[in-house]
Amino acid sequence: MHATNTSSDAMAADHSPKAWRGASARRLEDGTLHLQHGPIDLLVQAWSDAGNEVERAYAQAQARFHTVLAPLVEELPTLRQPLGRIEPRLDGPIARRMVAACWPHRSVFITPMAAVAGAVADGILAALVDGRTLRRASVNNGGDIALHLSPGETFAIGIAGVDDGALHGSIVVRHADLVRGVATSGWRGRSQSLGIADAVTVLAANGAAADAAATLIANAVNVDHAAIVRRPARELRDDADLGDLLVTVAVGPLPAATIDAALDQGWRVAEVMRCRGLIQAACLRLRHHVRVAGPVTDADQCELSFPFRKR
What we know:
By secondary structure, this protein is of the alpha+beta class. The chain has a single domain (8-310), classed as ApbE-like domains (T-fold, Roll), CATH 3.10.520. The protein is built from eight helices and 14 strands. It has helices at residues 53-65, 69-74, 76-79, 93-102, 116-129, 207-220, 233-236, 256-275; strands at 24-27, 33-37, 40-47, 136-141, 144-149, 154-160, 167-174, 181-185, 199-204, 228-232, 246-251, 281-286, 289-293, 308-310. Helix 4 crosses helix 6 (207-220). The longest helix is centred in the C-terminal third of the chain and has 20 residues, at 256-275. The two termini are 15 Å apart.
């Protein structure tokens, strides 16, 4: 899984909604279902030992996908607003998933757009598995993944390097684990970030929850340093949901102590989320330094315990 996140940018691509063509679907050589509509790009996979269950599941996912984008666009004005004391009332089921995932974090600045990629993955996964007999299934929305696992099944997700794209590790999720969503966020990805994390990968109960948490933990991996360049989000994109907040646009060479201080900030936020039951684990990366919030706290021990396994 690459260190990218389509959260707030997924609905704010370079083209207006009027320019988006209709939803498309095609099968890749390995059988994966590829769904694309405007800025939303999904890879859908399913496995079953029962007849044509996979084909039926794909048909259900494709039918649901055609109804995803338009309702989200209609509710964008509300979805781009920071959450406050009153929970917004929205009509679309994916929009409601976004609010539900972000609502526990409303004490800090967050808009429901922080969970859009994960919420879309969750919504398509729900359609995919509805009434079907599947051993396992996944919906990958630009690196934010929603999972379905039957008893005895596992799902392995590769963690790609930020600079070289090579496989640097893996996450193995088991049926017994309380994880059905994986998301990654960081300043190098497609979404804007207040922090300097190269990548923060989060495991949570669903894709939307993982997406929102990854966004906030990545924001928290932060320090003040002359090598860090920031600009108001609105200067980079007129419709940015972060408004005039300063987002990271470049990170130069940093001393090891500064890197550790930034990661420690993010790790503390991740641990609070874990203690609150909002996430199961998180892996924070910056310039080849790693912090893990989860059952183990020493990154060198990750291969010994759920959920992160280093090469």
